[in-house]
Each structure stands twice: as C-alpha cells, then as structure tokens.
Structure to design on (323 residues):
C-alpha cells in the first residue's frame, strides 16, 4: 500500500469520554499478522492535524528497524462524505502519509463476506481505559475477544443502529472496549484463508462493561469500495476477471481468467432473480470452483480480484437455474 496509512476515527469524543482525540488503526502499515499470533509494536501516540508522531517504540519480535524513533507526517485526512456526527453512521476516515510504506497491510473484510455475522468471535485492540470505575490507561497495547451480535439484538439496547454498524460484546458486560479505544480495529481470523481481516472500527458504546449493553463498531465491509478507491493507485488496481460458467445437470463449475499474481479472488453470488442477499467466498488464488446443487437452485454469479485492499470491479455477471 503506497498511499494511505490506515483507517482512523474522525475527530470526536472517545467512547464515553470528555476528551477529544484520535486513535488510529496502525495495523495497515506498521505491523502484520501471522497465523500463529500477533506481531505488533507498542507505541505512545501524539497526533495533531499537521503531524503524527510515534514516540518511544520498543522491541518488536520479527519486525526490524522499529527501535529507532519514527516521525510520520500526515498529508491528507479524508473523512467519509456520509459521516454523521449525531448518529455516527459512516464513522471512518483515511489518513494519507507523506511517505511511502512497504509493510504488509491487514486486509479489510470483503464487501459481501459473512465473516462479520452474529456469534462470530472477534478481537479488538486498543490503548483504552481498562477499568470501568476509574481511569486506568495502559502503556502497552491491549486486546479483548468479543462475540459479534446481530444488529436486531443490539437495536433492542440502543436505538441508533444502522446497516453501516455492527455490535460486539457480552450481555453480561464482562468484557468490552472502553474510553480511548475508539478508532481501533475489530478483527476476525478466517480459518479458510488463514488470514486476519478487519471487520470493524471501534466507534461508540453506552458506558464500559455495562450489563445489557454492547459496543458499537463501524462495519468495515460496507466501505471496502470507498477504501479501495481512495488508497489505491490506478496501477495497483487488479483488472476485473473474465468469468466462464458451465452447467451439467446439477454440477456447476465457475472458472475465471488470471488478473493478479499477488492477491486473490472473491466469488460473489446471490439468489436468482431477486439478487438479494449477496454473499461471497474468498477463493484466495484459486481460479476455479465446482459444486453440486439440487434441482431448483438458481443463482447469479460474478468474480472480483483483490490485491491487499485494492479491489477490482466485478467480472461479467451470469446466472444459472438447476432443472
């Protein structure tokens, strides 16, 4: 990724806080994830609209060159045009660095993925308050595992949940994100691809660890096209594949042309003729998918390619009906 440092929370009060601040998602450029654990630095952070300073980094396993002081300048802040400061809908922004980084970014969740659905276990990171009773801000990056809950269930506890939000936490309130965690990432580990994906951005909540309450997060997949369009140069955008669909009885085979050697592909499908809901499967670097379906099955199908968080448009769209 050559242009954008990462997702962050726009200037607004931290979750339940009187402090105006920004907590940004450093995952995109400053560390990557391994399938057997996190690789992460711990930073003290100072920020103003002109300059971002990462102060006093400490030793980081398998990440070289981070013992020295780092000083990054922000050349541009891009707030999502639909951000609503009252409802917190579309609560995200992008930071553009004045320098190029070559570190591997975490992938945002694909637009039609189901990996941010109810009951899926997610992990939140942050330097927020670790006590609901007193201010207790840690010196090291913290993590907490939280189950994602349905928007309908969440809406029973709060009245301003939109499709661009997701909720996570425990009804009993035993774990939660808190003051100072806003803007940090909510992530899910995908067992199929063996990759971490960012599914949310910590956004709001009613108190911390409050019984019957859940934390609110920006639903990142709804903004994947916005992110890709902003952060990716034209030369970084993979071309849309050309798809071929073959039907033999109940056997369906979808294949597509190779348009990326560095990324992968997503197979997108939806019921025919309604075209809703749309869902998708991460095919990684495969270029063919086969399945046997029962009579009466009918779907639209299309493919798109990705390289990191740069996503192509859809291939040709086709459909089939199993008689």
């Amino acid at each position: 990724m050559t242009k954008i440092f990462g997702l962050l929370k726009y200037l607004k009060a931290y979750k339940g806080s009187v402090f105006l601040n920004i907590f940004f998602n450093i995952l995109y450029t400053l560390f990557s994830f391994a399938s057997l654990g996190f690789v992460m630095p711990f930073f003290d952070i100072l920020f103003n609209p002109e300059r971002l300073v990462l102060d006093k980094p400490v030793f980081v396993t398998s990440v070289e060159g981070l013992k020295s002081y780092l000083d990054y300048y922000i050349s541009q802040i891009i707030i999502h045009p639909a951000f609503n400061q009252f409802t917190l809908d579309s609560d995200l922004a992008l930071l553009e660095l004045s320098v190029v980084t070559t570190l591997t970014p975490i992938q945002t969740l694909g637009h039609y993925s189901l990996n941010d659905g109810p009951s899926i276990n997610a992990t939140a990171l942050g330097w927020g308050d670790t006590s609901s009773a007193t201010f207790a801000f840690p010196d090291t990056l913290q993590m907490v595992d939280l189950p994602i809950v349905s928007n309908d269930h969440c809406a029973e506890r709060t009245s301003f949940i939109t499709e661009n939000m997701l909720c996570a936490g425990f009804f009993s309130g035993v774990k939660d994100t808190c003051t100072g965690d806003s803007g940090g990432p909510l992530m899910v580990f995908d067992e199929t691809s063996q990759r971490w994906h960012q599914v949310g951005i910590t956004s709001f909540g009613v108190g911390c660890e409050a019984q019957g309450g859940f934390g609110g997060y920006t639903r990142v997949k709804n903004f994947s096209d916005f992110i890709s369009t902003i952060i990716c140069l034209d030369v970084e955008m993979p071309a849309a594949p050309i798809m071929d669909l073959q039907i033999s009885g109940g056997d369906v085979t979808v294949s597509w042309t190779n348009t990326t050697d560095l990324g992968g592909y997503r197979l997108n499908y939806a019921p025919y003729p309604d075209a809703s809901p749309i869902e998708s499967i991460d095919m990684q670097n495969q270029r063919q998918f086969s399945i046997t379906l029962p009579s009466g099955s009918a779907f639209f199908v299309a493919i798109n390619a990705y390289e990191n968080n740069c996503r192509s448009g859809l291939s040709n769209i086709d459909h089939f009906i199993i008689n």
